[in-house]
Predict the structure.
Amino acid sequence: MLRLIFALLFSLNLPAQSGNYQIIIHGGAGNGLKAENYSEAQIAAFHHSLRRAISIGDSALQKGTAAIEVVSLVIQQLENDSLFNAGKGAVLTYEGLASLDASIMDGNSGNAGAVAGLSCIKNPITAALAVLNNSPHVLLSGAGADSFSLQNGLTQVDPSYFITQRMKGIHESIKGHQGALDSIRDYKMGTVGCVVRDRLGNIAAGTSTGGMMNKRYGRIGDSPIIGAGTFASNATVGISCTGHGEYFIRHAVAYQISARYEFQGLSSQEAADTLLHEVLKPGAGDGGVIGIDKEGNFIISFNTAGMLRAFQQEGEAVQSYIFGELEK
């Protein structure tokens, strides 16, 4: 019977199953993520949002949906949730507008797509996926990225859709401060990300963000930069990052985790911990990463007080966490 199954798969040119699937997400890291800073209701809301996003991915994976599509579906859910700094509820630029970035990478093909500075596309991760599927380029920005997305039939919204009263209030409280970055240093960086390894062993990763509050001059962080904020390879790992993007760009964090895992003989967790605690932290590079390696092991590392994260192995219960290392 087993020979018959494999013969059938071969005749259909389909790969054989290679194990259980895994899914992991983050909703940002920050030194403000301490239990004393949040009410019980707020903490419950974080857990609910994380688990709801995981459930969407779990349902899709059960149906055999490919890893790259699951990443997009999960991140769309997080972009639609105003608790996070991505899509609706994103932080605002110096001018008081939302400027949205996203990227996605397929570890099977090595293809990637990214967008930066979107202003009117409801779900930026869908724009990144459209770049991956329909463009010879990897990264599109600004008005050109909006135009490309609209030509590809993606959902358009008025720019005001992204702006919430909560973010307007935070923006108004810091606007004009020369030390704006310092004044929000402890704020939760609510970038969202997802990494999936499907039953065929294909890994995909994606990241979406509104960037840094009060950013100016078209600033772009690590989230849309392949190798900095997002990376995926079936041969190594899938990674999504969150934090102070300038540092993640300078150190090519997402790719470095893959490289240290592949070439230095470190475990995937050791590679991530080395980057976060020994490379980034001494230079004030705050943030965290989530991922999955080729063996299906979860990767979770952060050097801040907390990081919103949740994960699930096929057939097991979802786990979600908010605060420090002891909670993992």
